Amino acid sequence: MSSMSSMGSSSTGSATSTPVDHDENAPLWDYVTKLIKRGEGGNNTKFKCNLCNIEFQGSYMRVKAHLLLTKDKGIRVCSVVKERSELLVEIKKAHEEAEKKKIMAQPKNVPLPPPSTSIGGVGGFRLEDYDPEPKKRKAAGNSPLEKGMNMGARETLHSHIARMFYSASLPFHLARNPYFIAAFQFAAQNNIPRYVSPGNNLLRTTLLQKERAHIALLLEPIKKTWNKKGLSVVADGWSDAQRRPLINCMGASDGGAVFMRAVNCEGETKDKTFIAKLLGEVINEVGSQNVVQVITNNAPVCSAAGSIIEGIYPKIFWTPCVMHTLNLALKNICAPKETGVAGFALDECLWIKHVIDDVMSVKNFIMNHSMRLAIFNEFVSLKLLSIADTRFASSIIMLKRLKLISRGLQAMVISERWSSYREDDVGKAASVKKKC
Ligand SMILES: [Zn+2]
């Protein structure tokens, strides 16, 4: 139970501190102490008024009635609030502010754009068709074709869907999602009386479990091949949108890869024993006799965890991820260090580093100066890469792109516009010219 009010039960104090579970929509909970809470409905909540110290049972409705001195609600009004008018003013204000906020948060009743009056107008909305008075609106779809296609309803549905996208900031590429398309196709082809789309709760409970169980069933045939063909347990770390450190485990086999689990390692030290324990759990889940190898990236801690696994399961190998290994090799080639295991590469590969440094300085100069970028866009139709933190071989990708656009770059730096623009660092612009 997390709902103990922090105010204690002083019979005269008013709510000045904010309790831990302060609910903006129901601020008057702050004036009482919840004693028992069973179920979601709140009807079984037992609460004690912090002002008059009397215990009651019931929902927020009754808390409100008690504190706002509402009669005929079947609950005794608060004797302390009755005595102290300044307290009543304070409570009323908190209540009214919450109500106002609730109203503000409700969706505004903005009318949809009216359907256009002819097929020609579908898609392109013409201003002269706009009639703000819905009563006077001409009946859409009078021609037989329009009637057959139900053009009016079609357009209205379009508008509803568009409104959904804009109001919830849904990404536009959702419109390409085949399941999104299928959902509306299904809705349009089936007359389901009084249908209401699934709510928040249904989506994250019943429907989610149903989908999960169904997918698990679909994956069964792949899992059945594991004891014949064997599988690799693959693990990799990543961060989700909330920057939580996750470790993913997959079972990869001839039939395809099956997602096993994602573990939230927030607050954990991701050392070799932790990773080995995690891998061990997955290995036991799929049956250690089925596992051929575990594949992780090539970081020292993963390699050490691999050794632990090899120690526990003598028939299982640890294999470093090829992609990651190649990426490390490329990194050593592109940015050779003087010391360390790859120290010998310095003499051989230093020229590569110089090329990359030049490319970086050209790229940064253009990207950081808006005028230069405008000139660039005139000469080159491809975007200059803005290398995000792509995990693998980003330098190589950048070099490749620059090679692709090198003619445009050369034309750009010898152009009149490049040399006549002198508002930024002219020396740098000249050095960029040299490098291209
Ligand atoms: Zn009371």
From TrEMBL:
Skewed-composition ranges (Low complexity): 1-18
Please list the residue ranges annotated as the DUF659 domain. 200-361
| Pfam families tied to this protein | DUF659
**InterPro entries noted in UniProt:** DUF659, RNaseH-like_sf
Give the residue ranges for region: Disordered.
1-23, 130-149
This chain belongs to which protein, by name? DUF659 domain-containing protein
Species this chain originates from? Rhododendron griersonianum
